[in-house]
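JOB MANIFEST
job_type = single_chain_structure
chain_count = 1
residues = 154
[input]
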Amino acid sequence: MKPRLVVGALARGDLREPQVMFFALLACALIFVSQWPILSRAATLDPSVTFEQRMGGAMFGIMFLLPLLLYGFAALLKLGLRLSGRIVPGILARLALFWSLLTVTPLMLVQGGLSAFLGPVGLTQGFGFVVLLVFLYILVKSVSAVRGIAAPQG
């Protein structure tokens, strides 16, 4: 309900890198699970690529590549915050991004179910846009929380 308060409390607490990494890996695992119904539907509609092959590709992309991309995005976020005049520790930038992603994974699970049952129709694409907007809202509030904690530059 109040992402700024939650992220602020997490940032002021005894925050360590394994906890932040856990948020990222848990988000990736839930995103991977959200893809299962979609992959099953795709394998049923096009049996030339089996479900297991699709799962292997999704696992590699989501569980191995996505965490690396998330750390890269967190570094860009930290750089952006530095350019805006705040020196934000890297762990706080990662917390803001990873926590924001983790909080929208229930919506991603719903989207996966909708996509599996309805296919690529306007409703599922519209719901995907809603998921993106919710993620961006939570990310902005989370960044605002860590920006408030960080020291001004100079």
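[summary]
The chain is about 85% helix and 5% strand.
The first helix runs from residue 3 to 12.
exit_status = 0
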